[in-house]
Amino acid sequence: MQVMLLGLPGAGKGTQAQRIAAEFAVPHISTGDMFRAAIAADTPLGREVKPYLDSGRLVPDELTIRVIRERLQQPDTRAGFLLDGFPRTLPQAEALDAMLAEIGRPLNCVLYIRVPREVLLARLTGRRICRQCGAVYHMVFQPPVTPGRCDRCGGELYQRSDDTEEAVATRLAQYAATEPLVEHYSRQGVLYTIDGNRTVDEVWHDIRNILHDVRGQG
Ligand code: AP5
């Protein structure tokens, strides 16, 4: 299965991606996670993208496309993959179409998680992430049992540097570039729209059913 998650920052893409990757055994490919790992490791890529992530601006298309092209050449993607946060602009979507046409494996499902913009600020500023295993929490909506500690592995929870009110406002504004993607994938007949303004389990219930159906058709 070649699956992609589309949605505004805070829509719940990362939260649902962890469940999808576990249930359907596909690698979770998140451009945001790849950029953050490069920043943490202080690589040349990390140094180049850091100013963009810190301020909430999009990384230039050319650089982002190169990172994904290299990642999709890894052998673990042969049985399928889950893209999270890429593509995010029309040029990125067109580049992805070309890459997938080359390997003869088009996207068979784009899950568009819709959440009203006014809900997103509260979701993002309250988000906490486990430093060790990457599990995602929310101080109010999905709190850990022990404050500041991961339920799964006991790791320390931290706040992303771009989850400040200022950076979130920039990220939400940048997302206008993503709107044409809804039309792009709708035309390809692979778009599934999901109401993301419900509990994590309710959203997962719908996504799981869609993906089982899509896999059954494949
Ligand atoms: P990226 O890491 O992709 O961030 P994003 O798109 O802004 O999305 P988020 O990870 O913030 O949100 P999410 O939808 O995954 O929400 P989550 O599940 O965590 O990108 C970061 C940066 O990298 C960009 O700003 C850009 O600079 C750069 N970048 C990345 N890709 C790029 C590209 N393709 N092109 C150019 N630049 C790129 O949930 C959020 C919170 O809500 C959590 O606390 C969670 O617990 C809670 N929550 C989730 N679901 C629910 C629910 N149903 N009910 C209540 N709370 C919920």
Keywords:
49% helix, single chain, Rossmann fold, 218 residues, 8 strands, 9 helices, five-stranded parallel beta sheet, P-loop_NTPase, binds BIS(adenosine)-5'-pentaphosphate, alpha/beta, three-stranded antiparallel beta sheet
What does this structure look like?
InterPro entries: Adenyl_kin_sub (IPR006259), Adenylat/UMP-CMP_kin (IPR000850), Adenylat_kinase_CS (IPR033690), Adenylate_kinase_lid-dom (IPR007862), P-loop_NTPase (IPR027417). The protein has 218 residues and is of the alpha/beta class. The protein has a domain at 2-116 and 189-217: P-loop containing nucleotide triphosphate hydrolases (Rossmann fold, 3-Layer(aba) Sandwich). The chain is 49% helix and 15% strand. The protein has nine helices and eight strands. The protein has helices at residues 13-24, 31-40, 44-55, 61-72, 90-103, 117-125, 165-174, 179-187, 200-217; strands spanning 2-6, 28-30, 81-84, 109-114, 127-130, 136-138, 157-158, 191-195. It has a five-stranded parallel beta sheet. Helix 2 (31-40) crosses helix 3 (44-55), helix 4 packs parallel to helix 5 and helix 6 crosses helix 7 (165-174). It is globular and about 45 Å long. It starts with a strand and ends with a helix. Bound molecules: BIS(adenosine)-5'-pentaphosphate. Residues 7, 9-15, 30-32, 35, 52-53, 56-59, 64, 85-88, 92, 123-124, 126-127, 136-138, 141-142, 162, 171, 196, 198-200, 203 line the site of BIS(adenosine)-5'-pentaphosphate.
